[in-house]
Every structure is written in structure tokens, then in C-alpha cells.
Amino acid sequence: MKTVNSCKKLWVFMVFFLPALVSAQVNLGDIQNISDTEGTPSDEQNFVNVGDDYYVVWNKWGDIAFSKSEDAGQTWSAAETVYSAFDYGANYPVIAVDGETVMIFYYRNTSGDSQVFMVKSDDGGESFGGEVQVSSSENGAQVPQVVAEDGVAYLAYEDRDVDYNYQITFQKSTDLGDTWSEPEMLTSGEDDSRWCNIDVEDGSVYVTYNKQTGDEYDHLDIFFTKSDDSGENWTSPENISNNQDYNARMSTKVMDDMVYVASSSNIDGIQSDIRLYRSDDLGETWLEPLQITDNAGNN
Fold first, then answer.
1. Alpha-helical regions (H) of 62-194
2. What is the tens place of the pLDDT at every residue in 173-199?
3. pTM for the full model?
4. How many Cβ atoms sit within 10 Å of the Cβ of residue 265?
5. Which pLDDT score, from 0 to 100, does residue 24 have?
6. Which of 88, 171, 220, 230 sits CB 3.0–4.6 Å from 210 for a disulfide?
7. How far apart are CA 71 and CA 43, in angstroms?
């Protein structure tokens, strides 16, 4: 888990990249203060767009805040608190949008264990309903990831099994959050499976996560599983890195026939660099990884 330094003043900033015409340079637009919460940390932000409609959600010291832009980020709505930490603070919010439905997920403690919760808007983020508990973990669920497509929401998160090992669990909703399928653990075993990513394209669902595969904690590899029938059946998890290079902080994206997984990897045993894992056939086979960075200091 990341450690949140609540004593440090953090801001949610968004920088929009504009195409440059000279020397392949990138012009940076003006920095915009979206959160505008002086004295209160704003972090763990998550962003999604549908065309020129931009949506961002973040953790405001245990509260969950939301803002949107209808003009590709030129102007933003006033930040709205969609969950207030009157009892337990929320963590790691994520957002998915399908049509006028905006769904925000996060996890927080309850009187028993931590669980995954959702707040939902049916009018494009103008108003949100009350908090709904999605997970039903007996030993604690956390760190959700979500995508939505064609009226279906796909949710993955960490859930401790009966032996208190972290496993990756999947649920879906065919009515965009009104009802949910029973939780299904996609992983098993004594070693923890953590920090999952999820993406969807044309009804196929793709999940990546990291898992300890050696004797040391930093022997982390990236595993991949997919479903070609909207999450009904899944392939056996495959180790796509297989190098124990502390592959962490992953980001996964599916585009056309390509699956891209970017990772911070301890390639030379001294410092971390950014490495790209890529499949040209939607995860059937994987190419040799590409090292993107090779400069002094950690990336």
C-alpha cells in the first residue's frame, strides 16, 4: 500500500498537452487548480473522459470529491463532495462513465472490515445518490478498479481470502450499478495478488495485477487474465513479466488488437525504470518488453 502523507499539502493539478508544430516539442497549457482546497490534502486522483466531457475524482482527506468539464478541460465545475467521512475516511476513488451514468467507487473501513462502496449519478454528474456497499468481504476488500461499456460495469478489487491472503476479485453489473453479480476470485494461492488494473473492449475484459513470485518481497511479477464473454469465464493467469524485477505501479490499456502494460520495474537491481509489456493479439502472446527510460534516478 502507498503511504499518504497527510501533513503535506497536495493539490490536484491537470496539465493538458497541446500538439506542437516545431521540433516535436510539447506545449504545456496553463496549470489549473481543480481541487482548490488550501490546507487540505487532495490526492489519489482518478480521471476519465468521454469525448470532450472530462471527469475527475479525488480523495480530499477522507472525503471523496468530484468535478467535471464539458469543454475538454477549459473550465471545470465547482468541486462537489460526494462522500463525507463522517465516520470512516475513504481511499483510492475511481470513476467510470457510461452515457449519463457516472459511478464512483472507493473503499473505507466499516464496523467490521474494509469494503468497496459506490456513489452513482444518473444525470451526468449533476447530482449523486447515497452510498451503496458493493463488496461483501469477510476479511476486508480494498483498492477497486472499474470500467464501463455498453451498459455494463466491470469491477475488480483486492479481497482477503479465508487465509487472509490478498486475491483479485471480480464483479459486474449489467444495469450500471443497480445490482451486482456474486464476487468471483480470479486468483488463488498463498502469495498475495495486489494492485490490479482492468480494461474492457467489445465485451472482452482484461485484468492485470502483480504477485510475489520469489523469496523476497520485491520479487514481483505481472500476471494477466482475460475473459472474452463479459466476465463469465476467465483464462488461467499468465506471468507476462517472469523476471521478478519488482514490477509495480502498473497501468493497463487495451486499444484495438493491442494490450499495453506499463510498469515501474527494478531492471538493473539498483533503480526503477519504466518498462512496457505489449501484446499484439489481445493477450494471446506477449512481445519482449521494451525499456522506455534509462536515466539517472528512479522513474
1. none
2. 999 999 999 999 999 999 999 999 999
3. 0.90
4. 28
5. 60
6. 220
7. 23
